Amino acid sequence: MNPTIVLLGGDGIGPEVVAEAVKVLTAVGARFGHGFRYEPRLIGGASIDDDGMPLADETLAVCKESHAVILGAVGGPKWDGLPGALRPEKGLLALRKGLGLWANLRPVTVHPLLTDRSPLKAERLENVDLLFVRELTGGVYFGEKRRDETARGARAFDALTYEEYEIERVVRLAFRLAGQRKNKVTSVDKANVLETSRLWREVADRVAREHAAVTLEHQLVDSCAMRLLTHASSFDVVVTENMFGDILTDEGAALVGSLGMMPSASLGDSSVGVYEPIHGSAPDIAGKGIANPLGTVLSVAMMLRHSLALHDEALAVEAAVDAAVREGVLTADLARTHARSTSEVGSYVARRILESGAAYS
Ligand code: IPM
Ligand code: MG
Fold this sequence. Notes:
It contains twelve helices and twelve strands. It is of the alpha/beta class. It has two domains: about 1-100 and about 265-360, Isopropylmalate Dehydrogenase; about 120-255, Isopropylmalate Dehydrogenase (3-Layer(aba) Sandwich). The strands form two sheets. A ten-stranded mixed sheet has the order 2-1-3-12-11-4-5-10-8-9, with helices on both faces. Strands 6-7 form a two-stranded antiparallel sheet. It is globular, with a radius of gyration of 20 Å. It starts with a strand and ends in a 7-residue tail after the last helix. 3-isopropylmalic acid (IPM) binds near residues 74, 89 and 93. The site of 3-isopropylmalic acid has 7 residues, from helix 4.
């Protein structure tokens, strides 16, 4: 296979972690006989600095023609003063919308050797293995935005809308994924207040009737936020709307102990997906070579599985990351003693893949 992979390093630590993902992917290619072709492009602040726009039309076009996109992160203090439509984050939102990526998968698993890095007690982390399915192209993120003046001063307006089909497709995906896991879906909403949530609940109930083997429960977002900290192991697949998903998945990352370990996959109707760590651009540590590349590397594993159907290759990447954790080859956010650099961790994972011998063939 010779797939074309677009590389959107973006801002802050984005380019550093994407460089390690490429190192790892190239090792996968050498080990399994694939010639990955890379198309580096700009997004976010880096793209604004280049041509004034957070996502160039040409970049979106190249992504549409590719097999998959690896993205680092967007944003940083340099661009914070820009108007909403020209901010770096707009590039990421336009990419999600432009590629029709309506589902965002964010798995939360806690490595048994890393439970002491979480602010939560170890016993609350036992058996935590949940998958967030976040709706990604609807809701308040994409609703009409407006400002006007009233007699008392400025008024701001963000519309929150959902159409039935937008809810149905993401809930359906959640049920399908739960069927491959522990057969449980928790649908999260604010149905005691929001009309969009009441529609969400109706649609989820309807989809549930077609999936007898999977149990559906509804939970309000506020109590879900609490349950994540007290009984996270009671979740299997959690499906929710765009903004609730944004907030809850950062909370989920706290369970893992480091945002740096969390991968994600953004998927839609076509096989082209965007794979990115959830940690963001971390401008405070950019350029220091200390960022954790494992969230991006694990996103590469998700890319191999979801966009390229290369399952053994995905397992090889995950096994090599597991080896890095077991051997303590970790960056400062997780290391117990001798912290390694971003590039040392990436090189270690790549070498483990190259050395993995015949185990996966
Ligand atoms: C995320 C990020 C983005 C989001 C930002 C950068 C627009 O927080 O992927 O979770 O809110 O979706
Ligand atoms: Mg977020």
